[in-house]
Every structure is written in C-alpha cells, then in structure tokens.
Amino acid sequence: MELRELSAFVAVVEEGGMSAAARRLHVSQSAISQTVSALEREIGVRLLERVSTGVRPTDAGAALLDEARAVLARYRQAVRTMAGYRGESGGVIRLGIPLELAPHVLPGALAKFAAESPEIQVVPRHLSTAAQFEALRSDELDVGLVRERPAGSEFDALLVARESLGVLLDSSIAAGRVGPDGVTLHDLSDLRWTGFPRSSSPGWYDELTGALRSHGIEIGPPAPDGHVLIADVKFAAVSGGHAFALAPEDQPRPLPDNVTWAALIGRPLVRRTWVVWPADSRRRDLGRLIASFGVPDDA
Length: 299
Description:
Radius of gyration: 22 Å
Number of helices: 10
Oligomer: single chain
C-alpha cells in the first residue's frame, strides 16, 4: 500500500463520496475512483459500499481507516521531525489565505519577510478555514490565515486582524434606512442575510449567526458546500433590496452604483483573523514569517 492510496481512501471515507474527496485532494474523480479500486484489488477485500448519500466503509474498510490514519499521522510527524533538523523548508512556505483578507495583513508581512529571507518563496493559496486546517494536518500547507482560533494543542495561533463588519445594501434600501451613523441590525430584520457555507468555517459561522439572531435576523439554511461568497456574488444578492451582505469598510474593489456600504451602529460584528501553524513545527523560516505579521493594537 502506498501513502497516496491511503490518503485517497481516508479522504473518500471522511468526505462520504468520491467527488467531494476529489475536490479535497484537487484531483479528478476518476483518479480517486481508480486509486481506491487499485487499493481494494491489492489487499483483496472490499473497502467501500454505496449508500443513498454516497459511500461508507465496510467492516474491513473501517478497520483500515484507523490504520491508515495512524500511518499518515506518523508520516507527517516524521516529515516535521526531519524539518526540525533541517531548520528550513528547502525554499518554499505554503501559505493558506481566506477570501476578503484585511488588506493590511499580508503585504506588510511579506515585504518584511522578503527583506529578511530573500531566498524563501511564499506560495499563497485561497482556502476556507476548514480546508486550511485539513491541509495543515495533511502537510499540504505550512501556515494558514483562518477565521477561527483552533482549539486544543495541535496548532499554535496569533491574532493578526480584527475588523468591524458593516453591511452591503441595495442603494434604494440604504437611502431610506441608513442614518449619519449607519444602520442597526434590527433595522434589517426583514431582509435575508447572504451567508456562506457553515462547513467552510463552523466556529465563525456559529459565532456570526448567533449574533445576527440576537438582533432579530432570521437565519435560513446555510449556503451549499462549495458556494464561494466573493464580492460579485454579494453585489448580485443585495441588488433588488431583498437581502444584505456583510463586509468590512475597506473594500478591495469599488462598489457598483446600485450598492451601498453602511456601518453597523454599535459595531456588533467583529471578524478576526489568526495566523496558525503546527504546534510541533521547529522551522526557523516559518518562525520568521509568523514574526513578520503585525498584531492589532487592541489585541
């Protein structure tokens, strides 16, 4: 059995299907299917069975799942241990970043790090918070910028941004509701919140929706998995006056003429960003990058 076969099998079981596992591993669905079939032929037992919601492990598959996770964990630990002796990454740091990252967070940190370590290349990659934690565990990322602080001792974290969120509204709606100081969430209770999939950042989603509910906002079903809440999606959703979206004041691009940003009175919603990394990492280059990030003044 090869590590890539075990990784594919674990992904299929954890995701509950071939297509979701393929997205997680960034390969084609046919490649995942062929890899798992080859593994079944190699060991001579059936590992998966189809169910109405996708696939689930057989008894043999459940036994292999525990073993495969243990093997992959030991492999990742071995890689990290050797990196500790080496002290450097070999020239590359893989960095996860979320959508709508506060504009001051990354440029300053990368400029400072480049001046101190010009031989190290930082390779950024857009991923949700949940996907970044998974990629850190599977040694596909070295460090991440995430929306929720990790629990437990697996990762270390440093707060690097705190943003008060406002709202995006159709300009015709904003004209009748937004005052000189902004608008309250209670004034938006008849509008639909344009949200993101809970699976992308469960902790942040629960914190955010809890605050919205406390201000009279009804929360509908979460957006489907794979839904990406980019700026254009927000602009389209609020156009027409039936919905609102959340966004910081410092927009990465100009607003359309029919969309208005407004502050929320009392600043009830704060979005935080942490830089996170494996707690057992001993890489000096990674330490220098982490030290390059600024800390909010009120942290």
